[in-house]
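At this stage, I wrote out one protein's amino acid sequence and its backbone structure tokens, and that material follows here:
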Amino acid sequence: MITSIIENKSSRQNLWNAAKNLAFPTAIWRLPRQSEKHFLTSFEEIPQQSKIDFEELGAGFAFSPFVNPDGGKTFFLKADLHYIFNANESTQNEDFKEVISPSALNPHFIELMNGEIQALKSISDNKTTNQHTTKQEFIDLVEKGIAEIENGIFQKVVLSRTKQLVLPPDFDVVATFDKLCKAYPSAFISAVSLPHLGVVWMGASPEVLVSQDSEGIFRTMALAGTQSAYDSDGKLIKPSEALWRQKEIEEQSFVTRYIINCLKKIRVREFEEEGPKTVIAGNLMHLRTDIIIDTVAINFPQLATVMLDLLHPTSAVCGMPKIPATEFILSNEGYDRDFFSGFLGPVNIQSSEGQVESHIFVNLRTMKIEGNVATLYAGCGITADSNPEKEWNETEMKTQTLGKVLNSEF
């Protein structure tokens, strides 16, 4: 059993390093407002790609790009090995639970865990793509989007940009993951390693796409509208005292209507709607409406699978109507979003209490790590009332979510 060799403070670090050195696709994550940290690795060097069907798939981790026709480009990291870690305050260590134990494991994995051998493989060092959007490029893009709205092409479009940073020499994925967990307790914190692509994606997402717990309670949310969580004096604003412009209220209402229209398509009318309300996500505030459905009461156990297909990509990451907004994004942003504004999260994963749940989040507040370079991504919703300068400032605030944790000049 592996459990006998990871009873030390750096156990998650050892697991991560061993999986990386063997080129195993790996995910670590922590759900919002929880203390459990999960480690999952697949023994397939290239993870399978398939549509996410919660009723048919076993335990694993989904990772999907922004553009994903029919859902077939989603990576599914099968849970060949799954551990849950909990902080133990009395020992200042981590207790762990082995949820899935493989019947056969590459012997090099244990040797790497013990530090008995050196790395067996060099991870693919793909050439880092030069993706850095200038301020003028983004302002020009926003102005073009506003012009298309005025021409009646769409009502809203979500435009994004990138920012690249050189990582410090001592950068460490697991240590940075722990920093993000501490800094953003209400976010979904994750790190996903895809060695066959030579990349690691890290993020602190505030937005649930679909979630279904062991009791059959389905949840999704409309999260849009952004402002700083701090006033001009640097003091945290109370959510109850936040003031919202018409632009942000309208932007968020587009997303709520989009979700409700998806429910109408499948004739689901029994749902609970909470909000909109102001929520804090790191250094930002957003407007959020929660949609909650009891799938047992309406006899619709497949709701999460059906809604994932209908929702992605939501108007919170592309626009409204979806097709013309997406076409504008693909033709004008000037770079490949890749997994930014896609979705990710655990599928049919067991908690330490034994409940099996699925939680899929929109891949926001995220960065791609290639070698020693981090590419940060940020977007904002553009409506007829948008101000290009303010939209640039909004993306700057959003890149700070991860940027300030990197110990780089920011």
